[in-house]
Write the C-alpha cells for this entry.
Amino acid sequence: MAKPKQQQTRRADADQDVREMFDKMTRAYLLTVISDDLVEEHRRSPTGHHSEPLARLLAWCQRRPLPAQYAVKAEAEVGRLTSTQPS
C-alpha cells in the first residue's frame, strides 16, 4: 500500500530537518577542536591514520556538497569550490 503524498513530503522534510540538526551539532563540535595543533597534525601527515578530531573534521569536509566545500589554493589562501567550469 503506497503512502499518501502528504505523508511522503513530511518524511522528506523530517529527514532534511534531522540532517540540518546533525550538521549544526557537528559544526559546533568541530569549532571546539580546531586548533593550530590539529592543522599541524594534518600538515605532518595529510593521509593515513588521524586523531579522532582530525578524522571527524576531514569526514565532515568530504561530506559537504561541492558548492559548500573549501579548497586551499595556495599557502594561507582558501577558496570555494564550484560545480561549474570556468569559460
